[in-house]
Amino acid sequence: MRSTFSVLASVALLAEVVSAAPKYSGPPKYSGHTGYEPQVPELDYYISLGPRPFYIVENMTDSPLKTKLKSCENGPFKITDFSIGHRGGATLQIPEESVENAMAGARFGAGILECDTSLTADKGLVCRHSLCDLHTTTNILLNPTLAAKCAVPFTPANATSPANAVCCTTDITVAEYLTLCAKMDGFNASATNVEDYQHGIPTWRTELYDTCAKVQTLESYIDLIDSLPGYRNFTPELKSGADDPVTAQYAKYPPGYTQEDYARQFVNTFIKKGIDPQRVWMQSFNPPDVFLWLKEFPAFGRQAVYLDESGDTPENYTTAVARLPSIKAKGVNIIAPPFNYLLMQAGPDNQSIVPAPYATAAKAAGLDIIAWTFERSGPLAQVKASDDYYYSSIADAVHTDGQFYEVLDILVHQIGIKAIFSDWSATVTYYANCFGLEGPKSADYQKPPGKGYGWGW
């Protein structure tokens, strides 16, 4: 059971985040020049990390790392691009892709904030982690008119089948999407009605803040991040109709609209908003998207992030490692695998954690690494029993929450990751501030890419 202190601290933190109204007009707009240096005024805006980083440090085994982290407990803390807000940056407790989530991630010091970008029926671009997740991340099923448009209408659970529904952003328009409330991602497979279906999140998350969180379009996300004090950057991810089997089956693009159109519209939204490409770390799991950006929008493509989850089985992992040099040869500069690809267990009883072949091969190929997703998992004492994805490669070696920082330290100091996505940005911000980590630098990617990049592998 969560302690009264933890609940009160969380409520106070969210109240602070939502009520913050900093007097800041945002960074200067991009005018096409090079050597862009933002002029950031003095700001009356403070990073607030809450109790979680300190809880993790206190649970660490005594070590030089614990001593170092304890020495930083009084800050000062500042914004850092090493800390990337995954789906906003406070997804552990606040509905993903929402305004409230992004505001909390910003208050937690995330210097780069994410909007996963999905397509609507009228070619709008909205912040949603999947084209087909509205049934688990919003209240769409509670709106009979919109629920009737879902690709798969709600079916209650019965003696032989779980409750089911599939609602996609491509089922509705932008205007309809903006009437929805974001909620914590989850569903009750045993539900016999749509009200009960809304629940079912992991026990270590909370529905405390499921109070109609505000959904975002790509444009409103840009405006929000651009208005935040302290100068923040963007990492939008272009979702694909082939991201998973459900999406591939049910997401329907408008007639005549292609993935290439989608990828171009995605970039052009930032161009129309006057955003400097050096502030934008575009992402995709779909290689042709990245190659299109390299070819047609090189100022954005040079620091595009290729998200790689092609190595989830032992045989596929070997193939994923082997192809890393060819990825670099095609012009990609940044690879982003899940962090379980980068780590392996070793030593007596598998109690040590060491860099895995993927990490070694990526560095040898000259690829910078951004990892995902920190604090997406529950308590570390449960990761083996729960068959957790992110700790699957080191499940025998993790036992307590104090090891969160031990894992992060290996990723930083033995592997050299440039940044990491997190569902609770405060934890990563604390570590990054303690070690002076600033995150990826646009200047490192501004040289024109070498010849040879193109379509396909």
TrEMBL record:
Domain GP-PDE, chain residue ranges per copy: 86-401
Gene Ontology MF, one: glycerophosphodiester phosphodiesterase activity
Gene3D superfamilies linked to this entry: Phosphatidylinositol (PI) phosphodiesterase
Pfam assignment, any one: GDPD
Keyword Signal in record: yes
One Gene Ontology biological process: lipid metabolic process
Catalysed conversion reaction: a sn-glycero-3-phosphodiester + H2O = an alcohol + sn-glycerol 3-phosphate + H(+)
Signal peptide location: 1-20
UniProt superkingdom: Eukaryota
Keyword line: Glycerol metabolism, Hydrolase, Signal
EC numbers, comma separated: 3.1.4.46
Annotated InterPro entries: GP_PDE_dom, PLC-like_Pdiesterase_TIM-brl
Similarity comment: Belongs to the glycerophosphoryl diester phosphodiesterase family.
Descriptive protein name: glycerophosphodiester phosphodiesterase
Lineage of the species this protein comes from: Eukaryota, Fungi, Dikarya, Ascomycota, Pezizomycotina
